[in-house]
Amino acid sequence: MLTASRRIASALVLSLAGTLLAGCATAQPRPKVNALPGQPPTSILFIGNSFFYYNNSMHGHLLRIANADQPKAVPNLRATSVTISGSGLNWHNVEAYFDPTGMASYSFNADNSVSFNKFDRIFDAAIMMDCSQCPVHPTLKPLFHEYAKKHSDTVRKHGAQPVLFMSWAYQDKPEMTAQLAEAYTIAGNDNDALVIPAGLAFAASVAKRPDINLYVPDKRHPSLAGTYLAAATVYATLFNRSPVGNSYTAGLDPEVARHLQTVAWETVQRYHGR
């Protein structure tokens, strides 16, 4: 049972987060790109840092959500993650990631044997995330915009679609939510790129269920619940399909997983105005 002080603290968290989300909905710029053009992507590259690779990698959870959804949006979805610990976008050589003799030129099949691959196009979409503070840091934010453009141009040159991943606020700095939302939305609009509103989904979940901890003790990196919420938000954004009721729960309590699925879907619909 919650003590009186804890009940008051929870109410304050809900009030603050609700006010923040309302502010994001009215004051933040609106995204110009609300969906990827053409058919859903069949191959996805994640470019980022430890926010992606925590909990055995976000791309793995995305694949499991996609494979559990019936009928499948993409029968044979493929995803790869390229991450550097602590990195910003300017640390990544995205041109090298589209070298057909390197990235994805071989893989391992169900029998743990090596398979050699040849793709007409290595990836259909590239999801890019800067360091957790870079888009809003007074010294680093010019690099964020510079490399969001540079890498978006590189991705398009290789026939893929650039996608920006709006990261989340630190647990003890909720004001970062609106700041990151604005920065990523502006960069998305500047580069005609789809934006995944994971940061807004984190804030929405905290507002509704502050008892579900989305963070590990460092207050930056995601708990398993945080990674699952982010992966569900990626799925809802890229495929415009609801993850609500998906049978893959990453081992989370089914009721918790359903809450996170619902938050992901509602956030994507609200942000993209679908």
Describe the structure concisely for a colleague.
GO terms for molecular function: hydrolase activity, acting on ester bonds. By secondary structure, the chain is of the alpha/beta class. It has a single domain (4-272), classed as Rossmann fold (3-Layer(aba) Sandwich), CATH 3.40.50.
Distinctive features:
five-stranded parallel sheet, alpha/beta, disordered N terminus, Rossmann fold, globular, 9 helices, 274 residues
Task: Kindly describe this structure.
The protein is globular and about 45 Å long. Helices cover 44% and strands 11% of the residues. The chain is built from nine helices and seven strands; from the N terminus they run H-E-H-H-E-H-E-E-E-H-E-H-E-H-H-H. The protein has a single domain, classed as 3-Layer(aba) Sandwich (Rossmann fold). It has helices at 4-27, 50-53, 58-68, 94-97, 141-157, 176-190, 198-208, 224-239, 254-272; strands at residues 43-48, 78-83, 106-108, 114-116, 125-128, 161-165, 194-196. By secondary structure, the chain is α/β, with parallel strands linked by helices. Residues 1-26 have low confidence and may be disordered.
